[in-house]
Amino acid sequence: GGVLAVQEADADGIRCYPESPAFDELRSVLMKLFDGVGGDPWAGRRVFRLLRDAGLQDVDFRACTARSRSHDDLVDYLPQTILSVRDTIMKMGLMRESNMDAAIAACRAHLADPNTISTTSIVFQAWGKNKT
Question: Which of 62, 80, 97, 117 is the most buried (most CB within 10 A)?
């Protein structure tokens, strides 16, 4: 008996509106990084099915995301995430340092526009009961 709950991120939620070439470039590099180190940036969408396939009963889920505007602390989510893995990106040859600096600056300028909104990863939460 018991309940199993799983929470996993899904990168599909990393977006900004209006769109930005610099934001899209950084997002693309981040997805290549995940793939390159054996991660799964799309794992969140799979948790519901994984619990059902494992035989759990009464499986349910919810999805949520954080959002930001130009004045929110979370507005720097993508540029800061890229900076936090900068060395690995360079070692893997996913981006040249000068390109990264330019893309981060352009992305930050776009996100600083009061008309721009952005979202982070979608977080999927799923749970189910083990009735055995």
Answer: 117
